[in-house]
Amino acid sequence: MNNDIDERGIRSLARLRNTMKLTSLRINGNPIGAKGGKYLGFLLLHNNSLRSLDVSQSDQTIESLVYLTAVLQYENNTLEKLNLSRVLGQWYYTLLSDHVAQKLSKMFSTNTSLKEVHLEKLFLTDHDIEILVYGLMYNNTLEVLNLSCNQIGDYGIECLSEYLGKGPPLKKLMIHHNHIGNTGARAFSFKYPSSKIEYLDISENRLTEEGILDILNTLRKPYPIKYLFIRGNKLGFQSRKVIYRMILSGELEEGKIDIKVYKKTKKVDEKYINVFESAVDFPTILSCDGMYALYVDKNELSLPE
């Protein structure tokens, strides 16, 4: 990774396709170019040992992506992990996100081996997610999907929710650093109980109290959540209180959520007073990693000693 491997290096690897026994190949951050992408497709076409491939940040073009995804669509049934994040394109080349989504959708529709796919920083929009979901509906193997750092909004997450409502084998979903708001969270909450999601990262979006509560109130499902990341959204008093109660009940484990809740009974710190002007009116502080403070009356909640 992050070397100076160009298309000649990938061509040399492709020549070893019949004898190479590699199971994992990471060439991210290398200027392999469009021809290098084609050679990778040729490598996957004739090699059955490779299980993990990382070609992120490798200046691909739509032509090379067509070749790579077509091989995964029709020929290769052994690759299990693929990272296509931040496919930069060459300096004079504009990579249209809808074209990328179309090729990926076709790949998902027939591939029977991929279990983990990372598609970060591809500028995928709501329309692109709609295209992508069409192929995902036919996929029965994908367990990890990373769509972080894109341009997904409420309609995009609504389309993705329709896919989750079908009960696919997907267990891990990462959609942090997008533009998802409360409307998208409400649509997500309707379909989420039908999913098998155990790991959800929806941090750094545009959720407020209403959207966060919709998600928290739908976590009680046949497949319980194991990891939840919601930091970077606008948590309010009620949502923080719900999180605290879920931790007390064991529904959420404190070490598996990115907001740590603990009891503080000493004198109120100056920084908390700056955040909440009424802090001094409450005798007990529940703080979340020093960024959020939840103030409750001792008579309202049963606090641990």
From TrEMBL:
Keyword Repeat on entry: yes
Annotated keywords: Repeat
Lineage: Eukaryota, Metazoa, Ecdysozoa, Arthropoda, Hexapoda
UniProt-listed InterPro entries: Leu-rich_rpt (IPR001611), LRR-containing_regulator (IPR052201), LRR_dom_sf (IPR032675)
Top-rank taxon: Eukaryota
UniProt-recorded name of the protein: Leucine-rich repeat-containing protein 34
Cell division recorded as keyword: no
Native organism: Clastoptera arizonana
A Pfam match: LRR_6
